[in-house]
Amino acid sequence: MQWVGGIGIILMAVAVLPFLKVGGMRLFKTESSEWSDIQNTRVRTVASQIGLVYMLLTALAVGLFWALGMTGFNALNHALTSLATGGYSTSDASFGQFHTPALIWAGSGFMLLGGLPFLLYVQSLHDRSWHIARDAQVQLLFKLIAGTALAMTIHRLLTGSSESFFVALTHAVFNITSVVTTTGYATEDYTLWGSFSLMLFVFLMFSGACSGSTSGGTKLFRFQLLGLLLRENLFKSLHPSGHFQRTYNHRPVGEGVLVASLAYLFVMLMSLLLFSIALTLTGLDVVTAGSAALTALMNFGPGFGDIIGPAGNFSTLPDTAKAILCLAMLLGRLEYMALLILFTPAFWRW
What we know:
Strand order of the largest sheet: 1-2
Largest sheet: 2 strands, antiparallel
Number of helices: 16
Helix content: 55-70%
Radius of gyration: 20 Å
Strand content: under 5%
């Protein structure tokens, strides 16, 4: 179900959400080169090509996991849930049941592949070029994972970790990739890594990976667009008569794209506040309620605290809290606007 859900959310972003005028992919309908390809090609063709890439990457993951020491059962299950950034494992220890560094790095790699835009895979294969490496989202994703992993590794070693640099880096890269791509795997209980690491993980839970990937979360391009808006306002404050060129991936960005990003951010923050308050009414403590709301809306998985942290689960939560979290997961997975607009009476009027 997670594997099908991973490809399903991509096809929904490509073929369904644009007709509702919502979703991250819709924002670049007029600016993005990959959207131009879709407009000139049948959606069915594009969907089949994305599905083929998805299946090939899954088969590669099964083969590599098995070659590196997993049983066939584990290799199949972890291939299905790593590329789909779903995170279900065959053990309560999650990916921590595998102690081979090569397997942990392979898991990091396939989670990362699941967090990249699948349309760009297709475009890169068609043109036999590296479109995917030139994308601003992809570049930011690699920089974010590399920078935070290095910072977290150094911090852990300076604060008394007995692990070697390579082992600490291996676990940092894996768990950071898991959080950024909203997979939810864990090799260790990273809430025990100290306050600095915990705050980094909270920030990373908001980020998400790339639009058009199998991951959930806010998506990195929205942060880039909001950064562009901030730069423009600072520029206009210094030069009121100046002209600021809005571009993203070397293409102009319209006013509607920025407004949609701000609207998404507002709805996301309000949803986080309301769901957190609702969960406290079911008897949960502040940390559990807040992190449960955040992890559900971002479609991540583990929260923080002793109950729902990486070493725990949601089984002991009250049924009312679980029902609230079900709604939050649906809302976050459909990027808020898609679900909200379906319940807007004006949408159903002719």
